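Running this now, will post back.
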Amino acid sequence: MTKNNNLTTSWGAPVGDNQNSMTAGSRGPALIQDVHLLEKLAHFNRERVPERVVHAKGAGAHGYFEVTNDLTKYTKAAFLSEVGKRTPLFVRFSTVAGELGSADTVRDPRGFAVKFYTEEGNYDLVGNNTPVFFIRDAIKFPDFIHTQKRDPKTHLKNPTAVWDFWSLSPESLHQVTILMSDRGIPATLRHMHGFGSHTFKWVNEQGEGVWIKYHFKTEQGIKNLSVEASAKMAGENPDYHTEDLFNAIENGDFPSWKLCVQIMPLEDANTYRFDPFDVTKVWSQKDYPLIEVGRMVLNKNPENYFAEVEQATFSPGTLVPGIDVSPDKMLQGRLFAYHDAHRYRVGANHQMLPINRPRNEVQNYQRDGQMRFDNNGGGSVYYEPNSFGGPTESPEHKQAAYPVSGLAESVAYDHNDHYTQAGDLYRLMSEEERSRLVANIVAAMKPVEKEEIKHRQIQHFFKADPDYGTRIAKGLGLAVPQGVK
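Update: finished.
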């Protein structure tokens, strides 16, 4: 086929005039028969897919993961099968609450999503730059996110809603303490840790399992921004984190992280002092030390932001053999919600887009749907079971079983100590870090309209550590709680 440089329509026909609309006479109205004009305008109106409900603002990069430690006794995942093995990947970093055009340097958790293109299919590890979260049951997630978004009447951010929800959800205290600390505003996307946050399950070739938690440790070191610097940067360069990541990679300064895991024997889940599936809690590294797995390096920028970063879809339910889920109630909800969000936002066939497409062959009986741009299975058999040699299940790759018991009902976690770990974190901080934490919380709570909400939240801080609650109460000019139990 002869290659030329002709501008064409989306259906491949050459365009004769791309500067002037077809009109009825030189002054006349535009003609509906100018199909090139109509196609351009109609496509332009649809150039933006709906932004993500959460994690709308983000930056991404390509790279690889290299195994540095043999952990095959714990997992049969093929991409972890030998030391030195490299797997291509794509990473998307993001803020949680802001819109697509919001500033990078706001106080907010950062999304930390990794897509491994393994020989057994894609594996998505979808976490944050914090080891815990605000809530531990997915049924509360829509309400929580509503408080982080804009008020439906004023269309402004609403501190009263934020602190009202947190004060009525004491399980949020651990994450609130992290968010309001120095770690709440990372200096760059390169200078922060990443976490899988949830508990997952690894299974080996013998079908033996362990519970695990993922930790990505930045090799650039931790750096954070002060409140003053972040506010200044938000005004001067709201895309600072996006720009920094792109420039670092473009200049050959490839960011890297060491991936480690904590490993817990299955039986320990029944006796550990905190519920190991509660995502508002961490496992002590004294109890379950970090074990190195490998190293992640980002070495290539996207060629097209929309095609690669905006259309990238991640879900904690995108799993490979050897990696299963846990009974974590927040994780269980995300297994549905993330895939469903992508079907709405990008389309039923989002997995076929180049950035999401697995590197191995996909064989299934899913057909049709919007934007099905391959041969749609051709004339092959389109149902299962069948008598025509179509792809069949492989029982050896079933998720490992684990026992369940009890009544089918709506129940909370058995463990409700929301204060010990938040207090421990506060006591680990230096005096300077505590002072900044208190100042950040006081500034964030001052606009809250109801005194009742402030008092209720201060009770939580006080239960975590009396000094913590006392300093915030004094900063807000409120009475110090007495006799808190």
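Residues 420-475 form one domain. More later if anyone needs it.
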